[in-house]
Design brief:
Blueprint: H1 2-27, H2 44-48, E1 63-77, H3 79-87, E2 91-93, E3 99-104, E4 116-117, E5 128-132, E6 136-150, E7 157-171, E8 175-179, H4 213-217, E9 244-245, H5 259-262, E10 263-267, E11 270-280, E12 284-294, E13 317-330, E14 336-356, E15 376-382, E16 399-407, H6 408-412, E17 414-434, E18 437-448, E19 451-458, E20 469-471, E21 478-480, E22 487-489, E23 522-529, E24 537-541, E25 557-571, E26 579-592, E27 616-617, E28 621-633
Parallel strand pairs: 3-4, 9-16, 25-27
Antiparallel strand pairs: 1-6, 1-28, 2-3, 3-5, 5-8, 6-7, 7-10, 7-11, 11-12, 12-13, 13-14, 14-17, 15-16, 15-20, 17-18, 17-19, 18-25, 21-22, 23-24, 25-26, 26-28
Length: 634
């Protein structure tokens, strides 16, 4: 009975763990096309520790100053949470319990529902691969702090400036395991070319396709030699000689070898405060300040998904600060004391222009729009006047496939205006002093309200006008006018396709293909047939459903973190000199405070977004260690 009880306890424990892991795998369902963290300049904990007794002095009648330099190293932990923010809910759990992203071709047997469709990336239809991530953000910075007491002008007046010089490194550490497969692509799926003989399954041979998924996502490779038949006898002379397949230009994944795209060294935001301590005595102090911040760290350009950032992203800031402290205990010799200190900084972030990449709106299921920037779009154009084989009947838009594909990310990347209502950085600590030794222990809250994002202009001309580009999904883009060939460009759009699949869902028979009734507004053609039988009429869309501005999900992000920090310092107060040096060491551990949920955690009522009002909260957890050394001028 005792052994049976132990077995039941172990089984229950494993069940709880499995249930918890399963719950975690479905909780994180929101992805963020733009991943960010708090500016390296916004850190009230690092800013206030160590020199509390050197600044904000009472009863001074002349100028005094303190200058310090703080080198710090920080690094994120809990990489799984970062991965969830970037790719959930499409992550699968492997046998060893780690999360991975599966990528499988449309004809891979027993495709997983969460797998991304490999066809979008120029990979073979029988491709099978998985990618694991171990993202990490590290910063090495040197923070320069300067405080000047201006008591000779106005009692309690001061100015305070600090700015860190930052070297930041953002690494996805993507690792791929894959089997390229052996299949090519049939006639009509990518190109208007018929192969010799009956077998049309490899008009685009396997050798012309991308070998590894990471080659596509890094912007390195796309399919090559996608030829159209433009001959005067069997082809269509009005077509381009080749089909263009654009490389992924936006939201790419930097490889570990690409250090230039994953690191950045710049001066972070310059933070300045002009304050006045209007209540100041031996026991307590109360003061306020006017704070402003100048952006020097640069802006995002969305070339990479996990883009290294220094500073806040180009925002000018203006706000107020509150400073207070209270000496709660002091011994009779006045060489030991315990004090409480609080700094609260609240700022408004003014509108700045940024280049961002976005997903499409949700359609059908709650998560179908997420990661849609990696889907494949087809360009459409008006039917050329010299086209000897135009589609019949013509669609009401009078457009056809223009022999060009592009990742959706290349189309949705836009210049936008971004504004943030408020950012709060609040730190409180207890400070114990014993002669020249000082120990600080505190808590820091950081919060940033949701971004308001408004579209300004697309980075690709006419990308979102409703007729130039549409989702390809798994559509056949060419039909053929008889067995001899004569390719006819279709306009078969799939607005309901997702990152996981198109709407045709062809069977394992890859030779005879006909667009199904699931494409947008299907219509049988009278002169375009499938590539083999020349009997089944090929279907096209009438009218088409193209990509429009209102299809883009301009959802913003917000941030909440909680931090615990400590600092130990020695100050040479007993020197017979107007110069007082001090040196200390500190550490901090910051935890993401974002709440996970299945729908919008926060409703962004002021958003310019036309299709969704979710405000996604994704910020990293990190730890840091610093040295803080300086000198006061009395």
């Amino acid at each position: 009975m005792r052994q049976r009880g132990k077995r039941e306890l172990v089984f229950a424990r494993h069940s709880i763990i499995s249930a918890t892991v399963g719950l975690l795998s479905v909780i994180y369902v929101h992805t963020v096309p733009f991943y960010t963290m708090r500016s390296q300049s916004v850190n009230a904990a690092r800013e206030m520790v160590g020199w509390e007794q050197e600044i904000n002095r009472c009863c001074e009648d002349d100028f005094y100053s303190s200058l310090n330099i703080t080198p710090e190293y920080t690094q994120t932990f809990a990489p799984g949470r970062i991965t969830n923010c970037l790719f959930a809910p499409d992550l699968c759990r492997s046998a060893d319990g780690t999360s991975m992203l599966r990528i499988q071709g449309s004809l891979f047997p027993n495709r997983q529902a969460q797998a991304w469709l490999a066809d979008y990336f120029g990979l073979p239809e029988d491709f099978n691969g998985s990618i694991r991530f171990n993202p990490r953000i590290s910063n090495f910075l040197v923070d320069f702090n300067w405080y000047v007491g201006l008591d000779s002008w106005i009692q309690g007046l001061y100015i305070r400036i600090h700015a860190p010089l930052v070297h930041t490194r953002w690494r996805l550490h993507a690792c791929e395991t894959s089997d390229k497969g052996v299949r090519g692509y049939p006639a009509g799926y990518f190109t208007g070319m018929l192969a010799s003989g009956i077998d049309q399954s490899s008009v685009v041979p396997n050798a012309n396709l991308v070998s590894q998924a990471l080659d596509f996502f890094s912007g390195k490779s796309v399919p090559v030699n996608l030829l159209n038949d433009t001959s005067s006898t069997t082809g269509n002379p009005s077509l381009p000689s080749q089909v263009t397949f654009e490389k992924l230009a936006c939201s790419r994944w930097a490889t570990d070898c690409d250090s230039h795209s994953s690191t950045k060294t710049k001066l972070s935001d310059i933070e300045t405060a002009v304050g006045w301590n209007f209540v100041c005595n031996e026991r307590w102090l109360l003061g306020s300040s006017l704070r402003f911040s100048a952006p020097t760290g640069g802006k995002p350009d969305s070339c990479y998904l996990f883009e290294p950032m220094v500073g806040s992203g180009g925002f000018w800031k203006l706000g107020i600060g509150l400073t207070t402290h209270l000496i709660v205990w002091e011994n009779e010799c006045e060489d030991q004391s315990l004090g409480f200190y609080l700094d609260a900084n609240i700022q408004h972030l003014f509108t700045t222009n940024q280049k961002r990449c976005f997903d499409l709106c949700r359609s059908g299921t709650a998560a179908s729009g997420q990661n849609s920037r990696y889907m494949l779009a087809q360009r459409l154009e008006p039917v050329p006047a010299d086209n000897p084989y135009p589609l019949e009947p013509a669609n009401s838009n009078n457009v056809q496939f223009a022999s060009e594909f592009a990742p959706v990310a290349n189309l949705t990347t836009s210049m936008v205006a971004v504004k943030i209502a408020v950012e709060a950085d609040i730190a409180a600590l207890c400070c114990y002093t014993n002669n020249n030794i000082q120990w600080d222990l505190g808590y820091n809250f950081y919060g940033r309200s949701c971004e308001k994002i408004c579209f300004k202009r697309s980075c690709k001309t006419d990308a979102l006008n409703g007729t130039s580009w549409a989702l390809k999904g798994d559509s056949e883009v060419f039909g053929f006018n008889g067995l001899v060939g004569n390719p006819i460009a279709l306009a078969a759009t799939q607005s309901k396709a997702t990152i996981h699949s198109g709407v045709n869902n062809f069977s394992s028979n890859i030779i005879t293909r006909q667009n199904t009734l699931n494409i947008d507004n299907p219509q049988d053609s009278t002169n375009a047939f499938d590539a083999v039988s020349a009997i089944l009429p090929q279907r096209s869309s009438n009218p088409i459903v193209g990509l429009q501005l209102q299809d883009v999900n301009f959802a913003g992000t917000r941030a909440i973190t909680h931090k615990i920090f400590s600092h130990l310092q020695y100050t040479w107060h007993d020197r017979c000199s107007p110069l007082t040096p001090y040196l200390g060491i500190g550490t901090e551990v910051e935890f993401s405070g974002c709440r996970s949920c299945h729908t919008g955690c926060h409703k962004n009522k002021n958003s310019c977004n036309s299709c969704g009002d979710d405000c996604f909260c994704c910020v990293p957890s990190q730890w840091g260690i610093w040295l803080k050394g300086g000198i006061s001028f009395n």
